[in-house]
Amino acid sequence: MPGRAALLGLLTLQAVAFTVTGLVLWRLSGRPNDAFVSFHTDEIVSGIALAGVLVGVAYAAFKGLPRLSERLVRAQADNFAFLEKPLPLWAIVMVSLGAGIGEEALFRAGVQTLASDYVGVPLAIGIASALFAIVHLAKSPIAMIIFAIGVLFGYLYWISGSLLTVMIAHALYDVFALWYVQKEMHRLGVFAPKEGADES
Length: 200
Description:
Blueprint: H1 4-28, H2 41-64, H3 66-75, H4 89-119, H5 121-135, H6 140-160, H7 163-187
Helix pairs in contact: 1-4, 2-3, 2-7, 4-5, 4-7, 5-6, 6-7
């Protein structure tokens, strides 16, 4: 497992690569660079509001369905092994910003936009959301949730036309999700050595 600095560096490079690839796909669709992302107050407000709704729903589900919540947290142990040494809040924010910006640029502005020109919007949303889920390398129950979130972001991007809105919503939701999963993994002892693990 790479150290914290190396991990953050790799995730930053991934975010840059995803963003550049998304812009390339956007350009291949024949759309101008200056329409890739816009910056308006209403888009920022919408992104924050959407994140608030997502966080509220997720928190209510986690607290209302504790057994399911524990199962989902434990199912992510392998993918989130880097959380064994807890990340400080600033690092969680950095990881979340990279995911929100890079993944939305690639899957929504890039894949979904280009695919919609050939197969229509509904199927394009499905394709982008499936790739979005696959990239996370999650186990089946988590992959289904990620796919559903991808469909939601894809639909909202389609009706709003705002990449900034979904970037902000994604990043802010990820701050909560990463913080919560990290907290729960340590509370549940997910990283604690299993009995007999050191026996020969």
